[in-house]
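Late entry, written up from scratch paper. The run itself happened at the end of the previous shift, but nothing got recorded in the book at the time, so transcribing now.
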Amino acid sequence: DFYYEREDFKMREKSLKQIKKFVFKTKLNEEETFKMAQYFMFQMRLNWAIKIMLPFVAQDNVGEDFIFSFLKIAIYDKKQVKEKAFKNYLTKAKGINEKRYCELFGKPNMSFQLLEDYDIKIEYCETCNSNP
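Output as recorded:
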């Protein structure tokens, strides 16, 4: 932010890359990873956030805020998060908190265009039609 405020975008980019390098070399726990992912999201480095979150989101005991934040950004990177995996993460999130799962669809979260996928649409309709 220091470099951004000074409009020194070259140094800002260099600093962000140094932070990325450090973070990716460090073994962070879920909480630390979540905080760094939020920072990367704030800096519009969604692919970096996705990359550090992936190992945790695949675990059975992933935190609620963690998985829901992940889903909101994972839809933007089909290379890192393949369609089948994304659907599995959606199902996992539904199992953690159905109401919050239903709130994922539509503004300001994820687009209703996800409902063009038949499997996601069926799961959404079966889950969310009874949860206003």
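The CA atoms of residues 75 and 83 lie 9 Å apart.
(Scratch paper discarded after transcription.)
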